[in-house]
User: Fold these one by one.
Assistant:
Number 1:
Amino acid sequence: MNTFAAARVRIVLTALVGVVLSLGAAGCAQPEPEAEEPAVETVEYDPAVWAESHPEIFQTWMATSEERPPGLSKYKRGYDGGVMFDKLSEWPFMALLFNGFGFGIDYQEPRGHYYMMIDQSHVDPSRVRSGGACLTCKSPYAEQLYREDKDALFAATYEEAVAMLPEAHRSLGATCIDCHDNEALELSTRRWTMDAAIREIGLEPHTLSMSQQRLMVCAQCHCTYSVMREDDRVVDIDYPWEGSEWGAITVENIIDALMTQPERLEWTQTVTGLRMPFIRHPDIEFYAANGSTHWMAGVTCADCHMGDITLNNKTVPNHNLMSPLKRDMQVCLRCHAATPEELKAEVIAIQDANAALLIDAGYRTATVAKLIERANPYVATADEGAKARFDEAVEHYRQGFYRVIYMGAENSVGFHNPQEGRRILGDAVTEVDQADAILRELLTSWGAPPPPEVPLELERYLTNRGVYAKGFVREQYFPDPTGQAERRWPASLGALLR
Ligand code: HEC
Ligand code: HEC
Ligand code: HEC
Ligand code: HEC
């Protein structure tokens, strides 16, 4: 088929969809930008070339490098006023839980897309130990390098992999070609990982509807994945989506995949000695799971994180993707009649409730990790019955731990799917409480009853982390909005906050 002709048909379709959408959102019809002639003929990585035909969009895309206005977002402050925020100081239980992994050393809140490669070049070296695989969702060249020689890409150290990139583009993060097909400019994904994941949920890549495509361009990186290993060699990047379907990539299915496929084990948790998989930013999964209100209403990531902007008398989608709170909720007003203040209060209320649950589940999980640490020396010499009980406790711990890190890694602090967040964190607490009860019973039977508040030694995990000797940043800490955590773990949090 003549691809150029097909491309033009697609442009017309895209324009039509745009018109229908703007009619649907009553009372807020924006002037539709004209569909432009395809400007770029071959795979074009260089955003400057795209800028020739889309100078306004290019300008907004470049603005992801700008610092964010401080004081507008309560929980997602990445780069507000030019300051970077340390996730482990915000949520100290994570430092204990992630000890033994790069994330337990250096884990920062995200900032603009401009920085995705730049931030990897400053991060603690432990965070790029997976080498070439780290380019997968950071460099637009990942797909090409994978197709040319995937073994070489995965065998490379991080520095070697960066050296495979053209010199001028070694700091280039998500660019036009990551989300657009350069013949037609229509939305398209460009990663083998996404193609495989789309098939796993029963769809075919390149046949997605426009609204699916609008979600999937973001989902190709805002999703969880495993760095797959065989004999400690990286062999691929894979999303744990098997057994799931569109709109129902559930935390339960993800945990099943993590628990049953040993290739997904990536690190050893220091406190417990357990080999572990990991869960990273499950944004599409959490947003879409179990009928969230906005998902059911057909709202996509771009609706809330892009919005439109007028530059040079042209209205274009604002490619400076950021928190809606940092834009005074303007993107919400297209669909909601409430005032920005009311909408913001609703978001913060949802996030406070979620943060309280996350903090509670987080310290309960950290306590169980410390109980496993205490139990470990006795297990080798324990009788079969006690060993089986211990294994049962570990199973409950894993179920709780995975749910906590899932909720800790999704980027909206519960907003994307409030009901689902409550459900997941409720289940996490049920699981770790069962582990807690079994471990206390075992330790008591071994003559080593633990104290009611097991010391968490948080300072130990937060201080002197990695080559930059990172420490606890007191003013970045998120207190429990209900005040419960500081009362429930007075010794452990007291020691840290003093
Ligand atoms: C190629 C991978 C990739 C794609 C595609 C992608 N993102 Fe991101 N996104 C990232 C990474 C990585 C970061 C964090 C960058 C950093 O901190 O250095 C990020 C950060 C963000 C942030 C935080 C910005 C800030 O100011 O703090 C938002 C919001 C965001 N992305 C939304 C989106 C949306 C919406 C889409 C789809 C339209 C999308 N992203 C597509 C990888 C991607
Ligand atoms: C992270 C993904 C992402 C990146 C990177 C990206 N875009 Fe987009 N772009 C989108 C999305 C999503 C939309 C659709 C917005 C909508 O449907 O409202 C879009 C829409 C567009 C449109 C259609 C405008 C219209 O009004 O219909 C153009 C043109 C465009 N982008 C050009 C660019 C250029 C040029 C670059 C690079 C400088 C770029 N995009 C980078 C995600 C991206
Ligand atoms: C209904 C609106 C809405 C939709 C749809 C939505 N988000 Fe969000 N998103 C938010 C809000 C509100 C926050 C919280 C921002 C804050 O606290 O500052 C957020 C936070 C984020 C952040 C963290 C931003 C930061 O500054 O660090 C990322 C990344 C993100 N969302 C990505 C996505 C992706 C990817 C999708 C689609 C799968 C999506 N969002 C869909 C409203 C939305
Ligand atoms: C494209 C349209 C659209 C956009 C943009 C949008 N929403 Fe919504 N929102 C809806 C629809 C539709 C519903 C469900 C019907 C209702 O409750 O009004 C909804 C429901 C809600 C609810 C109730 C949630 C629940 O679970 O019942 C809240 C809170 C909310 N939106 C906040 C926001 C905020 C904050 C933003 C901006 C960050 C936003 N929305 C952006 C369409 C949108």
Number 2:
Amino acid sequence: MPAHRPVPTRIRPALLACALLVQAPLARADEAEKIVAALGLGPGMSAADVGAGDGRFTSALARQVGAGGRVYATEVEADKLEEIQKRAKDDGLENVRTVLGDQNRTGLPDGCCDAILLRMVYHHFTEPQAMRRSLWSALKPGGRVLVVEVPPHSSWRKLEGVPERGGHGIPARELIADMRSAGFTVLAQHEEWPGEDDSYCVVFQRPALTRAVPASRAPTASSAGTGESSASPARTSSAR
Ligand SMILES: C[S@@+](CC[C@H](N)C(=O)[O-])C[C@H]1O[C@@H](n2cnc3c(N)ncnc32)[C@H](O)[C@@H]1O
């Protein structure tokens, strides 16, 4: 059996770089799998990746909904839309539509989507209230919004024009309060999520339409809820 020889110091950085190059796509694939599962995406559905960046998660959504489905990828930076289109073409995906949005609207058609992904985007919104309204309009009743975020990082790049939150990011409690104020309910909260060490994920739902209840059978004030979903949000890990 050959003797185990230590790796020469001079090639250790190169080996580490190779390991990171292999690991990053694997971590992204793992996260993409978690995203499509949490969004409940399947063939024929339609979804949006709002603030899609270079479109690396758009392609994962598009593969999941298949040729009979559709994925909208929105951005406020037009050159990123070109990058997304190129990536979709290289990936052989014909079900991706790019959309130019702005800080007040997603640019998505009303009621277009069963699910919306907001990955590391919410804390970039300079007009979060307007964006929440626009997200609501774009979702079908019962549709889901999955938000991946980090708590504020004071050492990260400062974002111009966003609400002051003590750094780049947003606390989970503030995100949840914001989304509830717009009518969304919390379906699930994941306190550990791939990405940064402190990434978290919250899945929201635009409540499904319920049939009108005759006045004689409507709940009384004492039996009525608070307007929140009666089920407690699922938590997938202990609080940190
Ligand atoms: C940190 S990047 C995240 C990109 C991508 N979602 C990802 O996870 O790789 C944030 C992106 O949000 C975009 N963005 C910021 N505000 C936006 C808005 N109101 N509507 C759409 N995109 C927006 C930015 O241009 C940027 O590409």
